[in-house]
Amino acid sequence: MNINGIFNPENRFFTFMDKVMNLCLLGIFWALFSLPIVTIGASTTALFQYTLRLIRNEEGYVWRSFYKGFTKSFFPSTLLWLGTAAAGLFLALDFYCCQFLPFSDGVKWAVRVVLASIIFVYLLTIIYLFPLTAFFRFSIKKTVGGAFVMAMGNLHVSVTILVIYALFGAITWIFPELFMIWFAFASGLASPFFRWVFEKYMEPDKEDSDIIE
Question: How far is the CA of 7 from the CAs of 23, 63, 130, 161, 201, in angstroms?
Fold first, then answer.
């Protein structure tokens, strides 16, 4: 057995543990920069600025990557966050108010099914918004449209990503004090799926034209 190989910082174990520690730091940065609530969008984009490059070993330093992503995407990410939060609240209120409709139970259930379907599409779409903002130089309108097209056009991948976040959401329910770490891990695990989808839509002759460096 090669002792030098075991303690070599370049071996797979130390490389893996380095990525785990970086994700822990990333989760802490994400939580701290999300504290004003209104900045959740920008901090989430900054998180994906790192994780989408982690899978290709292009990530660089955690703090530098996170801060760069936060500052560069602050305005569009904040608008996207406020818009998605408002839309989510509207849909949740609509679903709650179904029970007060002056119709039969059958009609109420039909309305609930329609709203649940809309909420499902909404959830699949919003999980793409901030990774897209982190990876591409798109306008807000193009980001929203692209998120919808990618979510619906790659439904099996989108559902897989949603399941990943649901599983880590269950872990967060059990260990809520580490919610920021679980979110970073879930995003890191979902990032290969996001990047696979993104690369499907990149034009071969303009492969890097819209990618954020």
Answer: 22, 26, 38, 35, 42
A 10 A CB-CB count for 26 gives 29
Per DSSP, what are the bridge partners of residue 211?
Answer: 136
pTM: 0.85
As a three-state string, the secondary structure of 175-204 is: CHHHHHHHHHHHHHHHHHHHHHHHHHCCCH
Work out the burial of residue 97: count CB atoms within 10 Å of its CB; fewer than 13 is exposed, 13-18 middle, 19 or more buried: exposed
Count of other CB atoms within 10 angstroms of residue 110: 13
* Cα distance between residue 27 and residue 4, in whole Å: 32
Identify the helix (H) or strand (E) that includes residue 38: none
Query: What pLDDT score does 11 carry?
Result: 62
Q: Give the pLDDT of residue 212.
A: 53
Highest mean pLDDT among 2-11, 36-45, 109-118: 36-45
pLDDT in tens, 99-121: 777 877 788 888 889 999 999 99
**CA–CA gap between residue 201 and residue 185 (Å, rounded):** 25
